[in-house]
Amino acid sequence: MTRDQGQRLLLPLFVALVIVGLWQWWVTAYDIPQFLVPSPLVVAQTLVMDWSLLGAALLVTLKVTFLALFCSVLLGVTIAFAFVQSKWIETAFFPYAVLLQVTPIVAIAPLIIIWVKSPTASLVICATLVALFPIIANTTLGLRSVNRGLQSLFKMNRATRWQTLVRLRIPSALPYFFGGLRISSGLALIGAVVAEFVAGTGGTGTGLAYQILQAGYQLNIPRMFAALVLITLTGVTLFALMGALSKWALGSWHESETNSI
Amino acid sequence: MNSEASAVAVQSAEKTYPNGTHALLPVNLTVQQGEFVTLLGPSGCGKSTLLNMVAGLLEPSAGRISVWGESPNAQSQAKQRLSFVFQEATLMPWARVGANVRLPLDLQGINRADADQRVGNALKLVGLEKFAESYPRELSGGMQMRASIARSLVTDPSLLLMDEPFGALDEITRNRLDDELLSLWRSKGLTVIFVTHSIHEAVYLSSRVVVMAARPGRVIEEVAITPTVARDDAFRVSTEFAGYAKQLQDSLLRASVNVDEALA
User: Fold this and answer.
1) Which of A45, A84, A170, B157 has a beta carbon 3.0–4.6 Å from B83's, enabling a disulfide?
2) A168 Cβ under 8 Å from any chain B Cβ
3) Dist CA B104 CA A167 (whole Å)
4) pLDDT reading at B1 higher than 50
5) Which chain B residues have a beta carbon less than 8 Å from that of A178?
6) Domain span at A143
7) Does some domain include residue A69?
8) Residue B216: is the preceding peptide bond cis (ω within 30°)?
9) Which of A167, A231, A183 is nearest to A73 (CA)?
10) H runs (alpha helix) in chain B
11) Is residue B93 reached through a cis peptide bond, with omega within 30 degrees of 0 on the bond before it?
12) How many domains does chain A have?
């Protein structure tokens, strides 16, 4: 098992090394100018040299991402509970949840930025709108996916609505919720970056997206790449973090998180 | 027979679904305290429907069902004396075996110390005392079913309703659990209503078999099983056992032939 885990880490790292190596070789061998494609070495140097700028920007983007993820979980779970409590509520509001999902964020971000004074708040709202749907959809599905026999057992033992919710519905929904959380964590980051691309032109915010835009105007291509690398790494880290969280919560019992047997 | 003295009294109870399907024609059935009654029949004969109505999980469309003289849903006291064992083990996968068995007590709000003691006793009854801290997925199918039975016994019920509990198990495990069930039935003075589609299981376990047929679901006849020898492995291969099995099989066959003729 430890060998498996080692491989799961080593193999992707090996692939990354090969690609970075090839990239470095190609840029040096064909003498590609830096303002077209900077070499990995140059990108790494930029990352270190511009760290005060990029690190601060990363913090801003991270703040927006986590706030948005937090809001999505809070809102998404609340909405899912409301949907499960009454078929009427779900029938009336589910189409609007879908509407939320299919509206491109770039189209409504300018409006939100105009309406909401605080730049951080407007970014968080945009990113939340992007990240919300998977939490709603998955949690609703999970709260409904309760074993019929267990439901009868609770009924026969005259469990109260509250007991059934806490002891049966919520644990049954957890695997679904964590599935949604993994998707939403990535979406929250994308939402935070996309919203900042729109807001950034309005002269607010200093997140990673803004740095990419600025670097683009100045034709500082290595810095663009460095910011991009940071966004990518953040995304991967977030995904791994949510995976670890899910494993911590479900590892002892759920099939998806247990490799044994 | 006085229905007040009997454990379960079913009086012309029937079940018709809104789409007009007749799941169960009117049934009369009285189960005396301490009896082991098996409902035997093919799929769709309404045996689970009947059991669910006795449990109060389904309402009869017409007729009356009483458990110790009260309706299954209206009663407070009798409710606690009735336990249900499902087709599958239906354990909560996120809870350890001990917590699964403790569930009915937790829902009743019984204090932790008392509950834990009763859970320990129930687990000992089914031979799982070493597995209280295991998760259900770590147990075999037979052991999961044992845990499910422990959960049904933890409330100290007088009436045990079992819906094809061993249907998914291999024959060897099933036979062993049949034996354990019989000894529990005897030692605790339980009243059991047991649903199965296995003729052999019905003969081996029951003091009375209620034979049912499908399309529409109905009761055909009742057969008392009163072997002159003890119920053990020798009984399974005795001529007496074979005689009862043949009687039940003929009864089931007659019923299906009648339906085929009616359809033709």
Assistant:
1) B157
2) yes
3) 12
4) no
5) none
6) 62-250
7) yes
8) yes
9) A183
10) 47-55, 77-80, 97-108, 112-125, 141-153, 171-188, 199-205, 233-236, 239-263
11) no
12) 1
Binary contact (B93, A254; C-beta < 8 A)? yes
Most A CBs within 10 A among B52, B107, B152, hence the mutation to make, goes to B107
**pLDDT attached to residue B2:** 46
Residues 128-147 of B with CB under 8 A from A: 135-138
| R_g of chain A computed on alpha carbons | 22
Task: Return the structure tokens found at A237.
Answer: 């880290």
Instruction: Find the radius of gyration of the CA atoms of chain B.
Output: 19
Residue B137 and residue A155: Cβ atoms within 8 Å?
Answer: no
List the beta strands (DSSP E) in A86-207.
none
Give the CATH class of B1-81+171-264: alpha beta
Q: Report how many Cβ contacts below 8 Å link chain A to chain B.
A: 56
3-state DSSP assignment of residue B40: strand
Residue type, A115: W
Q: What is the CATH number of the domain that holds A224?
A: 1.10.3720.10
Assign residue A39 a region: left if phi > 0, alpha if psi is -120 to 50, beta otherwise? beta
Q: Does any domain span residue A223?
A: yes
Domain boundaries, chain B: 1-81+171-264, 89-156
Within-domain flag for A15 = no
Let me know: does B175 contact B241? Beta carbons within 8 Å.
no
Q: Does B55 contact chain A (CB < 8 Å)?
A: yes
Q: What is the predicted ipTM?
A: 0.85
In a domain, A130, yes or no: yes
> What pLDDT shows up at residue B68?
82
State the DSSP code for A29: H
